[in-house]
Amino acid sequence: MIKSFHPPQRILMGPGPSDVSPRVLEAMARPTIGHLDPAFVQMMDELKGLLKAAFKTDNELTMPVSAPGSAGMEACFVNLVEPGEKVIVCQNGVFGGRMKENVERFGGEAILVSDDWGTPVSVDKVKAAFEAHPDAKILAFVHAETSTGVRSDAQALCKLAQEYGALTIVDAVTSLGGTELEVDAWGIDAIYSGTQKCLSCPPGISPVSFGPKAVAKVQARESSVPSWFLDKKLVMGYWGGEGKRAYHHTAPVNSLYALHEALVMLQEEGLENAQERHDHHHQALKAGLEAMGIQFLVEEAYRLPQLNTVIVPEGVDEAAVRSALLNNYGLEIGAGLGALAGKVWRIGLMGAACNRRNVTLCLSALESTLVQMGAPVNAGKALVAAEAFYKG
User: Fold this and answer.
1) Are 114 and 142 in contact (CB under 8 A)?
2) Domains 22-268 and 271-391 equal at CATH topology level
3) Which residues, at least 6 apart from 217, have a Cβ–Cβ distance to it below 8 Å?
4) CATH architecture of 22-268
5) DSSP letter for each residue of 244-300
6) DSSP code of 31?
7) What is the mean pLDDT of residues 137-157?
């Protein structure tokens, strides 16, 4: 007979999901009420306000999609891309490739701008793409590429799109709450994220925000949005306005409790303080890894503090290392994706997992494991370097 499932305790320092705060887990266990209950509707209004603050936007169409970050991505493309339109898509990792696929599935023409994995999107290449295709309607790019840990210059890319009269769609799945992100100040038209990264929430919800120009395009569409569930004109009857709601779907009530609590915690800490915390512990982890002899994939100026992609030392079985960390220490780090499979580890410092204890555990466990495997690392130096950083 199958019995209740009780998962093992893990410390999640991979590319996501990240550790969930006990406060957020407690919020999920609160009594389920109806998704049209007046008390729940009031919570929805608060949730929208909290999301606006996290995105740094006044966009009225700011809401959580009742599905993972991939659905937030699809919500942006399915509403904004019409058949035959040109969309400049930037790919410097796995998730730019998913953007391209969305464009093509919805009848658009993807104009691909490619950069090496681990490098930021080239503003000059994007400018050249606009020069070659001045009729492009949208520029789509990943702000924080989860497959490589590289940050692209969203502000410069959005400014360039504005110069050519194009809208922007931005992937902020890994950046929201962990690194600088200014939706209104940078002129981002449509953006999506996920709850399972720097917000320290369980996966399954995707915050999105549509600016005035994006909303106007949705309203002026000549063709119907080819997704009933993700059609923003329909779902706004449930999430739009203040107070009264029209039924659209049964929202994941308890998951939204969790997001509300996570955003309350972000509000209490302060958005800038949370970003500084991610950078602070990243610097300690960096000091330890480099002292050990581990090299980073991404140049320092473009690294994401919350997602550290490092090169596997020569001759090391990277999967065996991850397995040993999981089995011996209950510690999860991530493997490489796509072109980087087998070549890198992705070490996450996201949300609740971004703390001194985890930095220390990761460095000591990784060093011990590599030494036991005979890897060419500098033993005994990682923790000393990290502690020296913390002592200032």
Assistant:
1) no
2) no
3) 80, 167
4) 3-Layer(aba) Sandwich (3.40)
5) -----S---HHHHHHHHHHHHHHHHH-HHHHHHHHHHHHHHHHHHHHHHTPPBSS-G
6) P
7) 98
The encoded tokens of residue 113 equal: 């701008």
CATH of domain 271-391: 3.90.1150.10
Domain assignments of the chain as residue spans, ordered by start: 22-268, 271-391
Q: Output phi, psi for 3, to 5 deg.
A: -110, 175
Query: For residues 62, 65, 68 and 71, what is the CA-based torsion angle, rounded to 10 degrees?
Result: -100
Is a pLDDT exceeding 90 seen at residue 156? yes
**221 labeled part of a ligand binding site:** no
Q: Full-prediction pTM beyond 0.90? A: yes
Q: Could you tell me where the beta strands, DSSP code E, fall in the chain? A: 11-12, 61-65, 86-91, 109-114, 138-142, 144-145, 150-151, 167-171, 190-192, 206-210, 307-311, 331-332, 334-335, 344-348
> Which residue has 């919500």 as its token pair?
75
Model confidence at 234, pLDDT cuts 50, 70, 90, reads confident
- Taking each helix axis as running N to C, give the angle between helix 382-391 and helix 356-372, from 0 to 180 degrees, rounded to the nearest 10: 160
Residue reference for tokens 């410069």: 156
User: What is the Cα–Cα distance from 164 to 159, expressed in whole angstroms?
Assistant: 9
Residue 293 corresponds to which amino acid? G
The amino acid that residue 385 corresponds to is: A
Tokens for 13, please give them.
């320092």
